[in-house]
Amino acid sequence: MPVTLQVAYPADNGSTFDMDYYLSTHIPLVGKHMGAHIANTIVTKGLAGGPDTPPPFHAVATIVFADQDAMNAAMKASGPVVADIPNFYDASPKMLIGEVVG
């Protein structure tokens, strides 16, 4: 059963997020260290939280794995990826691990 790791970067409390760095450096770092275990990756840039409402997130990354074992293997290799977060985001991201049900 596929599982996902979603990493959300809240746009609150004046946080800053460097989208250029994230796309050009961080996402390739994810591929380098975790890519062998990843089935698919989607990055969504926050544009709005509704009509006339700023986005609640700078970005959300959704990483899909074939199963829990693949995600576990990727997480074991994620040290350099996690260590890179302060280079583009000055707050703490939120994570959601989930089971694909639809």
Explain this structure to me?
This protein has 102 residues and is α+β, with helices and mostly antiparallel strands. A 4-stranded antiparallel beta sheet has the order 2-3-1-4. The protein is globular. The model has no long low-confidence stretch (mean pLDDT 97).
The number of distinct β-strands equals 4
In DSSP terms, counting alpha (H) and pi (I) runs of 4 or more, how many helices? 3
- Structural class of the secondary elements? alpha+beta
C-alpha Rg, in Å?
Answer: 14 Å
Strand proportion: 25-35%
Termini, distance in Å? 11 Å
Question: How would you sum up the major sheet?
Answer: 4 strands, antiparallel
> Mean pLDDT, nearest integer?
97
N-to-C order of helices and strands: EHEEHHE
Structural shape = globular
Query: Can you tell me the residue ranges where pLDDT is under 50 for at least 5 consecutive residues?
Result: none
Can you tag this structure with a few keywords?
4 strands; alpha+beta; 4-stranded antiparallel beta sheet; 102 residues; globular; single chain
Element layout with pairings:
Layout: E1 3-10, H1 19-34, E2 40-45, E3 57-65, H2 68-76, H3 79-84, E4 94-99
